Amino acid sequence: MAGRHIVLDAGHGGSEKGGAGPLRVPEKDIVLPIALRAAQLLRAEGATVTLTRQGDVTVPLYDRPQLAERVGADVLVSVHANAIPDGKDPRTVRGAGSYFSYTQSRPLADALQRSLVAAFPAVGDDGLHPQANLALTRPTSQPSVLLELGYLTDPQNLRTLMSAQGQEGYAQAIAAGLRAYFAGLPD
Fold it and tell me: What is the pLDDT of residue 78?
């Protein structure tokens, strides 16, 4: 991982709470410790990691990918927890998913998705979501992926997302997915 520059974005923050499941725990509070721990793991392997936020602060949405551009990051990974839209049955939607806008980001999304599903098979596999029209995956020149680690509306996903063991496992899976991605690049 030496020589790799990764921007990790802990989704939401500050006044932007993100989604919340039945326990009303804001998404912003669940994903921050995962991103912070993933950054620690990646730095221990020699990567340079820039975080979009390190605490409960509001970071404007478009400032996040602009930061990745400014620092010349190799990749941008935004960490989130999903919630279902109105009108869907919460008992039928669960699992980790990887969202990306452009073909250049597919290998990164694929490596991260495989790693998440391998680490948490019981959470479920919500799959790859290409051509995502998301502010964090569109305006970047580097590969950019938005991870939805699980659904806040699924009881098992929520328990995993909120537990210390689950958060450690997610951080490890993100680091492993990035390691696999970079290992697969041509020299």
Answer: 98
